[in-house]
Amino acid sequence: MALLEVKNLTKSFGGLTAVSQVSFSVRQGSVFGLIGPNGAGKTTIFNQITGIYPPSSGEIDLDHVSLLGLKPSDISQRGIARTFQNLRLFNKLTVRENILIACQHDSRYPLLAAVLRTGRFREEERLLSQETEDWLELIGLSQYADFKAGNLPYGHQRRLEIARAMALKPKLLLLDEPAAGMNPEESLALMEFIRDIKARFDLTILLIEHHMEIVMGICDHIVVLNFGKEIANGAPDAIQNNRAVITAYLGEEAAEDE
């Protein structure tokens, strides 16, 4: 079953068409890769799915319900969370506080209960604190809980950003170049972390990534974009040997050598 369906999605900025008639379906429980050279339109598609940009035309459905016209906060409530190319942590807050903020998205006590610190408020805060500690343990950052997020090693910051998105309890997690700036060892650890959270939470993941070892290692299906258009769509093995993909990444001469 398709959890996310994108149909004939197009986005133009003035006279520039960044995404043109792109269609794909993300099967529930899969890891779906969206790849292509820089400027191919990948992040623009993420921004349309999450409501940052309204599409110029096309459809975006989550669980067969349209997301068009919804605000980013409404789309998040429907079950989509994301990370960004550039880290968006609260750098001056602690690791624990970064996750706690995300955990509070579904707190149910009214403002007056918080002001008066009622029993309901105290019980929900206790549960949120426990949930935060559970996430810290899951991502292996318990020992850094009181560190400022901006002082963490880069690989740990990426892991924290993913965990913060996961704390929103999404149906669909969008990861925008999670391995950007990582060394090979960090990238391998990240790949294992993504595999772990997918299996543990039966999660559906839509992934943008330039590290091909990660893409080929964890994706079930891949769509390749170039200049805003789809040039290939299929399983990792088929994509890896696709002439149009090789040309887009390495040039015509490399494709001919294949």
> Would you tell me the structural class of the helices and strands?
alpha/beta
Pick out the low-confidence regions: none
Mean pLDDT: 88
> What is the overall number of helices?
11
Query: What is the topology, as strand order, of the major beta sheet?
Result: 6-7-8-3-9-10
Task: Round the Cα radius of gyration to an integer and report it.
Answer: 20 Å
CATH superfamily of the domain at 2-87 and 169-257: P-loop containing nucleotide triphosphate hydrolases
CATH topology tier name of the domain at 2-87 and 169-257: Rossmann fold
Structure summary, number of beta strands? 10
CATH class division of the domain at 2-87 and 169-257: Alpha Beta
Overview of this structure, please?
With 258 residues, this protein is of the alpha/beta class. It has a domain at 2-87 and 169-257: P-loop containing nucleotide triphosphate hydrolases (Rossmann fold), CATH 3.40.50.300. It has eleven helices and ten strands. The strands form two sheets. Strands 6-7-8-3-9-10 form a six-stranded mixed beta sheet, sandwiched between helices. The two termini are 36 Å apart.
